[in-house]
């Protein structure tokens, strides 16, 4: 059972990383209405003046110039 949970967690982490890099690299970004993002609270503030729960949600909204709360 623990091995299955580890595999699932690893797969989710890989897919989140792939989604993040794809959304940032796409100049013709299309907003994602209901993104599937990890429930990790790591707020970022972006050039559009919005603060997002984490970078994944910012990427889904095509936000750019995001800075982590710890970098401010």
List keywords for this structure.
3-stranded antiparallel beta sheet, 8% strand, 72 residues, mainly alpha
Rounded radius of gyration (Å): 13 Å
- Distance separating the two termini: 41 Å
Low-confidence stretches: 16-23
Estimate the mean pLDDT confidence: 79
Helix and strand sequence: HEEHE
Sequence of strands across the biggest β-sheet: 2-1-3
Number of helices: 2
Strand content: 5-15%
- Give the helix proportion (percent range): 40-55%
Written description of the protein model:
There is one protein chain. Strands 2-1-3 form a three-stranded antiparallel sheet. The chain contains two helices and three strands, in the order αββαβ. The protein is mainly α and 72 residues long. Residues 16-23 have low confidence and may be disordered.
Write the layout of secondary structure elements.
Elements: H1 2-25, E1 44-45, E2 51-52, H2 55-60, E3 67-68
Antiparallel strand pairs: 1-2, 1-3
Structure summarized in a few sentences:
The chain is mainly α and 72 residues long.
């Amino acid at each position: 059972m623990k091995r299955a949970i580890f595999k699932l967690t690893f797969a989710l982490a890989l897919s989140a990383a792939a989604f993040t890099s794809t959304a940032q690299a796409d100049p013709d970004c299309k907003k994602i209405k209901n993104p599937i993002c990890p429930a990790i609270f790591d707020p970022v503030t972006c050039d559009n003046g919005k603060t997002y729960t984490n970078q994944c949600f910012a990427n889904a909204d095509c936000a750019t110039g995001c800075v982590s709360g710890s970098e401010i």
